[in-house]
Amino acid sequence: MGRRFVRERRRDPYYREAQRAGLRSRAAFKLGYLLERFPLAHRGDHVLDLGAAPGGWSIVARETIGPRGSVVAVDPRAVPPIPGVRSVRGRVGDPGLAARLVATGEVPFQLVLSDMSPRISGAYATDHARSVGLVRDAFRLAREVLAPEGAFVAKVFAGDLLDALEGEIAPSFERVRRTKPPASREPSSELYLVALGYHAGAPSGSTIRPDDPVPSAFDI
Asked: Quick check: is 207 in a domain?
């Protein structure tokens, strides 16, 4: 980790506040902003947190839905224990993951969250395409476990595949919005797609196919 990065992080007010509040990551403030701006979660809801490690979003979600709700945190890595949060080791895109989630007894979920990021290559076109691929994986899973009128939130890197991605998601929801929380670093290209009002009977044409090709210019 470079010295410049360490210095910038220490000057970051969200990082400092996360340290002071005992939060697991500054990302907690991003979800806090989304929950305040959009009607995403209510007391007693079931929430699925994809790419959950180290657990910052799961903690915020748990506090939002209260003791009658539930949070299931999914990540290939172990998520340190969080009271009231069930952890599932798994990779989004695994065809068997939906069945494992059903087995938890928490399905359907009123909210599916994805704060997943790709492994950064340094080539922006590649990283953007990988980011879009992760959202597609998360959305395919959401369509299997999301309750009618539920919400879907996913992080994605801005780029020229974004319009097409939003067009694939939009037919399944009443509305889709793009937003960038204040806690996102200014130079970062990350933004969040917020989809509200899931239609369980969405037209089949809106399905994202696992083998949808990525343009060769973005070949990864």
From this structure: no
Active-site positions read: 155
* Structural domains of the chain, count: 1
Per-residue pLDDT tens digits for 141-191: 999 999 999 999 999 999 999 999 999 999 999 999 999 999 887 778 999
* Residue range of the domain that includes 180: 25-200
Domain presence at residue 210: no
Beta strand spans in 158-203 (E): 173-179, 190-198
Q: What is the DSSP string of 141-197?
A: HHHHHEEEEEEEEEEEE-STTHHHHHHHHGGGEEEEEEE--TTS-TT--EEEEEEEE
CATH of the domain at 141: 3.40.50.150
HSE toward the beta carbon, residue 74, CA cutoff 13 A: 23
User: Which pLDDT tens digit goes with each residue over 58-86?
Assistant: 999 999 999 999 999 999 999 999 999 99
